[in-house]
Amino acid sequence: MSTVPLRVAVVCASNQNRSMEAHYFLSKRGFSVRSFGTGTHVKLPGPAPDQPNVYDFQTTYDQMYNDLVSKDRDLYTQNGMLHMLERNKRIKPRPERFQNCQDVFDLIVTCEESVYDQVVEDMNSREQVTCQPVHVINVDIEDNDEEATVGAILICKLCQCIQRTEDMEDELDELLQEFEEKSGRPFLHTVCFY
Known about the structure:
46% helix; two-stranded antiparallel ribbon; alpha/beta; single chain; globular; five-stranded mixed beta sheet
């Protein structure tokens, strides 16, 4: 069992809901964790499905919060966006884009298959320098408050189990199979290299 905390990245599309909920849970349990999005822009629900609020990754959570308050405080309180942004700004200043990060992780967990594909594509396009492995795991999590919490708990339990393994390389496939059976969710897994 490793005494060094796993270096974990959690990735969703906009670094708002699912990745930030998992970031919160993992950081409370002592993991070295960062969270990211893979989109070209950050999108939050707007007044209608075809009218999202779109921001770039340089926009702080505080700026997004203030923008939504100025647009329609009641709507964004009711749909949970203001509450989510309040949580986010307690964790870090702004969303981050995975493709712009050069940090090294032991484990990258994605929250939907299209994000998994983008992370794997990005990792495979990078020049391999150290050949250090990184495990990329996807668990599909629906993008809503309740599922984000359920998914964060599942990701946290998975990371805790991985942390307790004697040899992650040898034990991970079996561990993921157990988690698939217990959770009823399929997991994707591949290994990339730095």
